[in-house]
Amino acid sequence: MALALEEAKAAAARGEVPVGAVVTDASGQVLSRAGNEVEARHDPSAHAEMLALRAAAADRGEKWLADCTLWVTLEPCPMCAQAASFFRLRRVIFGAYDPKGGGVEHGARIYAAPSCHHAPEVVGGVRESEGAALLRTFFAARR
């Protein structure tokens, strides 16, 4: 999670919403890492999770990441939660909960939906206060 928090801080420094993500394999080796790039790419799908998942799959030359874990500083939104399912991740570990925009423990609850074909193991609240503080600081500066 420390690497994901580093990515979130770098995203904030670029003017992006401070969310960072890292994909690791079964041995814990980092396959990819990314921060949000929505503003830079002019792409609303350029969330940290999406970028990290795509990069890990491309690096491996595979579409499935079945032995992998996604570490992300904020509860994934429905788009990113569904992507984690489509990549068939083994585990999703996130930091801060997102009652307004989350798609795992809140909102759409993607993995609890009967239409979900693959539900990864989920662990929430890992270094939650650090991820939440980055977001609070970021948005407070813009209000």
Describe it:
Helices cover 36% and strands 18% of the residues. The protein is of the alpha/beta class and 143 residues long. Strands 2-1-3-4-5 form a five-stranded mixed β-sheet. It starts with a helix and ends with a helix.
Low-confidence stretches: none
Which term fits the overall shape? Answer: globular
Radius of gyration of CA atoms, rounded to a whole number? 14 Å
Strand content: 15-25%
Mean pLDDT: 97
Strand order of the largest sheet: 2-1-3-4-5
Quote the distance from N terminus to C terminus. 28 Å
Number of helices: 5
How do the helices and strands follow one another from N- to C-terminus?
A: HEEHHEHEEH
Major pleated sheet: 5 strands, mixed
Number of separate strands = 5
Helical content band: 25-40%
**Structural class computed from helices and strand pairing:** alpha/beta
What secondary-structure arrangement, pairings included, does this model have?
Layout: H1 2-13, E1 20-24, E2 30-35, H2 38-41, H3 48-60, E3 69-74, H4 78-86, E4 91-96, E5 121-123, H5 128-140
Parallel strand pairs: 3-4, 4-5
Antiparallel strand pairs: 1-2, 1-3
Helix pairs in contact: 1-5
Nutshell version of this structure?
36% of the residues lie in helices and 18% in strands. It is of the alpha/beta class.
Key descriptive features of the protein:
alpha/beta; 143 residues; five-stranded mixed sheet
